[in-house]
Amino acid sequence: MRTLILLVLALTLNACRPAETGATGIEPPDVLPASVQELTPDQALSLMQNTPELVILDAREQWEIKQDGRIAGSIYVDYLNGGRFAENTAKLDPKKPTLIYCAIGERSRLGAATLVKKGFTQLSVLSGGFEAWLAQAKPIQK
After folding, report:
1. Are 79 and 91 in contact, with CB atoms under 8 Å apart?
2. Fewest CB atoms within 10 Å of the CB: 12, 29, 77, 113?
3. Considering the entire predicted model, what is its pTM?
4. Is the pLDDT reported for residue 9 higher than 50?
């Protein structure tokens, strides 16, 4: 039983780790670029309800989405897979309002820093990630 608990803990911690610098060529930002808003789940939900053109990006891995669900309408971009992230975000309009989230917020912060460098101007990050979203019982799609 102890081994199982340690294995689950190790997998959970590993899944929430930010990408290593070599994966994207950037360091995780201590502070988000000034143009990026950090939103609480309540603020993010309000943005979704009041901004029909909002693009929502899910930076988690596929297994996380299958296990926990996702925010309805979100686009899977998988930050930890640098090639997939670049490919999926290259198709997006950087002028559209965009919200990015991950499990706890680290990958979305890294993703936001990358997207700012690609010219995204209306970018928001879900503070606390999907875990904060779930903790506040916000709607999800399984």
Report:
1. no
2. 12
3. 0.80
4. no
